[in-house]
Write a sequence for this structure.
């Protein structure tokens, strides 16, 4: 009897270990994207981090570098200083104009800097995700750090990614913002910072099947 119980316990431990390793062992994103078409358009939507403030907007912003790396058309739809409510207001017309297959959503930094209501920010992002999907595009969200001595991604991005089942890059921008050598000022990356952001996104999109 003891040997049977011991065997069952060992099996239970093995199952638990397998579940844990499956959940967090590889670090790979759990969600996959549909492959982008040969002529697919990617819309990079956001504020100054998308626009490329701190570097050459046309050649050194992360959308410009991502276009070079991927061979895809990447539209830079970043507006410096924009808060999420303003972004929500202009998103639909951009979706209708460009008909993207994928939207890279990086918004909310100015809301956080101005200490605006994070519940409003979260709802605005949720509505953006809804608009993107309603148009038929896929979405990848990028979190931005909450201002503070020790930079950490604002928790609302992970919460939203979980509830909306959105693929999230929750680390790259915070990692870049934590290194003075990759910044042009206290808020914005420099050309090398934007290049690293584009490279990380290209790697992520390749891993999840977009390319």
């Amino acid at each position: 009897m003891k040997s049977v119980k011991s065997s069952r316990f060992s099996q239970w431990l093995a199952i638990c270990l397998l579940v844990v390793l499956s959940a967090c062992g590889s670090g790979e994103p759990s969600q996959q994207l549909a492959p982008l078409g040969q002529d697919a358009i990617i819309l990079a939507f956001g504020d100054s981090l998308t626009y490329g403030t701190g570097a050459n907007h046309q050649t050194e912003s992360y959308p410009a570098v991502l276009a070079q790396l991927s061979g895809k058309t990447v539209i830079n739809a970043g507006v410096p200083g924009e808060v999420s409510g303003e972004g929500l207001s202009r998103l639909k017309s951009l979706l209708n104009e460009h008909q993207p297959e994928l939207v890279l959503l990086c918004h909310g930094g100015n809301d956080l800097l101005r200490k605006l209501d994070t519940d409003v920010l979260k709802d605005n992002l949720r509505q953006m995700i809804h608009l993107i999907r309603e148009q038929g595009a896929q979405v990848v969200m990028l979190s931005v750090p909450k201002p503070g001595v020790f930079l950490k991604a604002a928790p609302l991005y992970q919460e939203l990614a979980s509830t909306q089942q959105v693929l999230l890059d929750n680390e790259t921008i915070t990692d870049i913002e934590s290194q003075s050598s990759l910044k042009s000022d206290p808020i914005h990356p420099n050309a090398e910072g934007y290049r690293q952001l584009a490279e990380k996104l290209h790697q992520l999109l390749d891993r999840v099947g977009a390319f």
In short: The mean pLDDT is 88. The longest helix spans residues 2-24. The chain has one domain: 36-207. The CA atoms of residues 93 and 99 lie 10 Å apart.
